[in-house]
């Protein structure tokens, strides 16, 4: 039952296909390194003589590139930083706020997390890429899809302001769903 005794870092990463938990074990006496993604062991290295370095792996259905950097701070203290697609987690999440919209809603007692990737207009629902139909309408575009027999539509309308750009609104069964910030 020695599992997780050397747990040194835990991160939550929101991707289009869901929120993923990344855990890292670092045995500073044995040099052991173990990376878990959503509770599943992705990497295990025993007896690493070099205690600093980098472990690279992928996360989620989109196979997003991730890396954990291990740096010595002083003496036997170490710092662990997570990178997603080559950016620090903080920078990645800031960029993600600009490139995606996320909504959480409950339909018939089930929670759904819907993500719009603005650059591709791909729509994800609870980890699955959705089949969508896009159409041009008078004031912008509408992207239609179905979740649990409920008709959904993401309306894209210009804000009229250059800095704000396009405003995306999710409408389910003719009611507007508020966006969430993850």
UniProtKB/TrEMBL annotation:
Gene Ontology cellular component list: cytoplasm
One of the protein's GO biological processes: apoptotic process
Pfam families tied to this protein: FAIM1
Gene3D superfamilies named among the record's database cross-references: 2.40.128.180
Cytoplasm keyword on record: yes
Keywords tagged on the record: Apoptosis, Cytoplasm
Superkingdom as given in the UniProt entry: Eukaryota
Family from the record: Belongs to the FAIM1 family.
Role: Plays a role as an inducible effector molecule that mediates Fas resistance produced by surface Ig engagement in B cells.
Protein name: Fas apoptotic inhibitory molecule 1
Gene that specifies this protein: Faim
């Amino acid at each position: 039952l020695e599992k997780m005794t050397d747990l040194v870092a835990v991160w939550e990463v929101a991707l289009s296909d869901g929120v993923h938990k990344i855990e890292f074990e670092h045995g500073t006496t044995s040099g052991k390194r173990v990376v878990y993604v959503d509770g599943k062991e992705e990497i295990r290295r025993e007896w690493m003589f070099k205690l600093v370095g980098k472990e690279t792996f992928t996360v989620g259905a989109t196979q997003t590139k991730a890396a954990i950097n291990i740096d010595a701070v002083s003496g036997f203290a170490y710092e662990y930083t997570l990178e997603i697609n080559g950016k620090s987690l903080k920078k990645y999440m800031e960029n993600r706020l600009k490139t995606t919209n996320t909504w959480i809603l409950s339909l018939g007692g089930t929670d759904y997390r819907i993500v719009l990737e603005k650059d591709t207009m791909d729509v994800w629902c609870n980890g699955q890429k959705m089949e969508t139909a896009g159409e041009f309408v008078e004031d912008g575009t509408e992207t239609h899809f179905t979740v649990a027999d409920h008709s959904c539509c993401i309306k894209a309308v210009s804000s009229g302001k250059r800095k704000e750009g396009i405003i995306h609104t999710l409408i389910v069964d003719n009611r507007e769903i508020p966006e969430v910030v993850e």
